[in-house]
Specification:
Elements: H1 12-33, H2 40-60, H3 62-68, H4 75-98, H5 100-120, H6 125-142, H7 144-152, H8 157-185, H9 190-205, H10 208-235, H11 237-260, H12 267-295
Helix pairs in contact: 1-9, 1-10, 2-10, 2-11, 2-12, 4-5, 4-12, 5-6, 5-12, 6-7, 6-8, 6-9, 7-8, 8-9, 10-11
């Protein structure tokens, strides 16, 4: 299915939901039986590698999505689009450096909107909002100290605590919404209920960062690829691979350079900046493009 006619077919959803649930359960069992032997820096590195390999490429295909949606058709058009995309991403990095707390709040908000689109675009807004609210809210309820420590790498402790409280309130609201949505869906769409259950389990049982990474890499990224590039993957897989690698590599190189230029005692802070600031900078233009594709008039 090409980008001008995104796929609404739900047949892929149950399989992804089952995979996500299975991996969540496996992670919980494995981490309970075999304590993770890695130190914090090694866990950060493993997580960033996972996001780079399984999460980043879906956004790296944005130039191709823009082409297939008619935003550019010539080489000058491609150059203009890429320059504008990178300029917006760079401006978001600048904004993050100067207004980190506001940028983090904005990032969490647009993340909720963007991830809820995995279901909203298919006609299931309640599932989308419930899953996004669980994703952001449950870690603050189940792992408050871990989340505060994570945000404190980016902000002061008191500000990090305020973020945790706000997200915990969201988690309290998310639980009844998710439960009601799951009960309503369990007969006619059991995959909806299954996914909400898996997200709920992960939010309570997994460390916050791994909970997010699992959702991002196993649910969000594959759904994006299936929705916009299913036909291209069958007809021109080499093109997809080439574009994905070409636009992922500069981001990965920049991240590696930043890590290598950081002193060992501040390594966790550097990893946190790469993950949050980097995803914020890339998500803003990515979100705007996806929203344009989804909301433009058919045939335009």
């Amino acid at each position: 299915m090409n980008a001008t006619n995104p796929s609404n077919h739900p047949s892929r959803l149950p399989s992804l939901s089952v995979i996500h649930l299975s991996l969540t359960v496996a992670f919980v069992i494995f981490s309970g039986v075999f304590p993770v032997p890695w130190d914090a820096h090694q866990q950060w590195l493993a997580l960033l590698i996972l996001v780079a390999i399984l999460g980043l490429p879906h956004g790296a295909l944005d130039p191709l999505l823009a082409y297939r949606s008619g935003l550019w058709k010539t080489l000058p058009g491609a150059v203009a689009l890429i320059v504008a995309y990178l300029a917006l991403a760079a401006s978001m990095l600048w904004f993050w450096q100067r207004h980190t707390a506001i940028a983090l709040a904005l990032f969490l908000t647009i993340t909720a909107w963007h991830f809820s689109g995995d279901w909203r675009y298919r006609g299931y807004p309640l599932v989308g909002w419930a899953s996004a609210a669980l994703l952001l809210g449950l870690p603050a309820l189940a792992h408050p100290q871990e989340l505060i420590a994570l945000f404190a790498l980016l902000l002061g402790f008191e500000t990090a605590r305020l973020f945790q409280i706000g997200l915990a309130v969201l988690g309290v609201l998310a639980l009844p919404l998710a439960l009601a949505t799951a009960l309503r869906a369990i007969r006619h769409a059991p995959d909806h209920a299954l996914e909400l259950a898996a997200i709920g389990l992960g939010g309570f049982a997994l460390p916050p960062l791994w909970f997010f990474a699992l959702y991002f890499c196993v649910l969000h990224s594959p759904r994006h690829l299936a929705r916009y590039f299913a036909a291209a993957a069958r007809g021109a897989p080499r093109t997809l691979l080439a574009v994905g690698i070409a636009f992922s590599l500069p981001v990965i190189v920049a991240a590696v350079w930043h890590i290598s230029d950081t002193a060992q005692p501040r390594m966790s802070e550097a990893f946190a900046r790469i993950l949050f600031a980097g995803l914020f900078a890339l998500t803003v233009p990515h979100l705007l493009l996806v929203e344009w594709v989804e909301n433009r008039a058919p045939g335009s």
